[in-house]
Amino acid sequence: MSSANPGSKRWTAFYTALQTAIQRSTHKWTYEDFTECFSLWCEEEPASSSTVFSTVAQHMESGITNRVDELLVQFNIKENLDKVQTVVSEAKARKKQQEPYEGHDLWREDLQPRAAVRARTIPLLEKERDRLKEMLIELDEGNLKLQAEMQANVRAREEADAEATALLDILEQLREKWDEVAVDDIEAWTLQTAESIATKEWTVTTHLVPAAYRRTTPLVPVPVIPSFAPGKDKEQRKAELDALARELDEMKNKQAKGELEQLGRDETLLWCCVNRYVRKRDGKGGAGQQGLTLFFAHANGFPKEIWEPTVLYLTNVMHEQNASYHISEVWMWEAVNHGDSALINAGKLSGMYDWQDNARDLSHFLLHYLPEVALGPLPIHLPRLSHTVTTPRERCGFPDRTVVAVGHSFGGCSLAWAASHEPYKRLFSSLILVDPIIADRKPTPTGEFLDYMDPHIVPALLRRDHWTSRAEALELFKSSPFFRRWDPAVLDIYIQCGIYDDPKGGVRLKMEPIHEAITFAEKLSSAEPWYHLCNIDERVRLKFIMPSGGGQPGGPEQIKEKQRLVWRRPVNSCNVINANAGHLIAQETPRQLAADIHIFLQENHATLKHRL
């Protein structure tokens, strides 16, 4: 134990006393004590035992000394003792010389040490007390915040439990609703459809899947179309229909401006029908390779089966030209307010509709319900797939399918929305958009936006929806300029699958005219895909099939708009013009449409040799 700096006398005296104490403590255990403990060893080897004793004593002294030095440094003992020595020495010197001094250390004979200590320590203690009070206040505030957070967490947990209970109730309702679904009717629809397309190659089945939950729009009453009562002239009826059209249009304007948010979102459980067409052979092409999966989305006002003539013509051209691609499965989608879906959802549909919901519904089906490739039959109610299947689809697309999606008009707009949004954009290998309704309008409620009203709303409200028989409906359709342009096979399938037997007598359109008009009233969702097209993955092959303008609604400006549309996403994109049709390409020229689809598949998906 040593000190590099001698320091003051007070420190030297303290340090010397400390050294003496250490030495005495370490040598208090004498050699005689050591001998008593190790007597035999000390007698036989006195020199070695004496050396060990000295080493142990020195080690003890060194250890104590080092630890004491650490404590002296830690508590700054030397510096403090030196200060005390300096203060005392200066005070004694001033007292001896009797010099006047007004400082804090003025020597006073009457000063009591306890009072002096109290005078110096009480302010420090009060300061420490105030600091501790502030700390307690901060802790109290922190505790209050934690308590508030805990209460909020408890409320959130209670709300989550309530929501979980509500969802369980919904699932129970879903099960009950499923028990109410007319499965026999669905099987009848399937048989009816099968008669129209079934061949030696294909098996046709109809299936149900839940629509996306919740809906984008609120649940509002469905308006009633004014009847053409006796005594009511045409002008009066036209004025009533114009007023109803403006009402539907204004409702969509309010939605666009956010004025309907207080109504919440429709939580009705809805269903979508899909048709599956699968090969009867092995579902595979040459060399055991899996073929393409075609997915079709219809235009507004038409059932899913409207695509069947196009698919039949496509299979014919595949055989005729010995195509080098192969189709394993075809799925035809149907929106909630169309065709068989509308019959199942009758009485549950809202008086508002958003095209975005159709995009969500079909995306929901592709991601969560389109089964992994299966050759056998599937249940009518397709089960929801597990996360082990859907998560890889979200990240990388289908591992076992090559999906080519074809959408016409309203259906094309829905597919464009789905292919440009997460987590659905990787589900598609190719898109074929047949004159999609994608408008070059700002997707915000500007004046121009609000002033626009779709000209098809009033004609939809005027549409006749009841006849005495299918034969009567067919004869009237054939005499109509609108239907006269259609391919006969398409008109036949429309009569067969777009109309159902009315329990009250006669036949009736599956899609009510009011819901067709409600669908035409869309504005915002038909403009959004214009801005999202560039977000479609560049690996997705994109083809537009557009009319030349004959029979096309709108003027030159709309034609120019479509010319700009086909190059909104120029990479990996192409387009072709169908000079023989207006907007209803799938209805008027299904053969040419099939040929255009065939060319696209042959150029982009020719990976195997077709075998008859």
TrEMBL record:
<protein>
    <recommendedName>
        <fullName>AB hydrolase-1 domain-containing protein</fullName>
    </recommendedName>
</protein>
<dbReference type="InterPro" id="IPR029058">
    <property type="entry name" value="AB_hydrolase_fold"/>
</dbReference>
<dbReference type="GO" id="GO:0000444">
    <property type="term" value="C:MIS12/MIND type complex"/>
</dbReference>
<keyword id="KW-0137">Centromere</keyword>
<dbReference type="GO" id="GO:0007059">
    <property type="term" value="P:chromosome segregation"/>
</dbReference>
<keyword id="KW-0132">Cell division</keyword>
<dbReference type="Pfam" id="PF12697">
    <property type="entry name" value="Abhydrolase_6"/>
</dbReference>
<feature type="coiled-coil region">
    <location>
        <begin position="234"/>
        <end position="261"/>
    </location>
</feature>
<keyword id="KW-0175">Coiled coil</keyword>
<feature type="coiled-coil region">
    <location>
        <begin position="125"/>
        <end position="177"/>
    </location>
</feature>
<keyword id="KW-0539">Nucleus</keyword>
<dbReference type="InterPro" id="IPR000073">
    <property type="entry name" value="AB_hydrolase_1"/>
</dbReference>
<feature type="domain" description="AB hydrolase-1">
    <location>
        <begin position="294"/>
        <end position="595"/>
    </location>
</feature>
<keyword id="KW-0498">Mitosis</keyword>
<keyword id="KW-0158">Chromosome</keyword>
<keyword id="KW-0995">Kinetochore</keyword>
<keyword id="KW-0131">Cell cycle</keyword>
<dbReference type="Pfam" id="PF03980">
    <property type="entry name" value="Nnf1"/>
</dbReference>
<dbReference type="GO" id="GO:0005634">
    <property type="term" value="C:nucleus"/>
</dbReference>
<dbReference type="GO" id="GO:0051301">
    <property type="term" value="P:cell division"/>
</dbReference>
<dbReference type="InterPro" id="IPR007128">
    <property type="entry name" value="PMF1/Nnf1"/>
</dbReference>
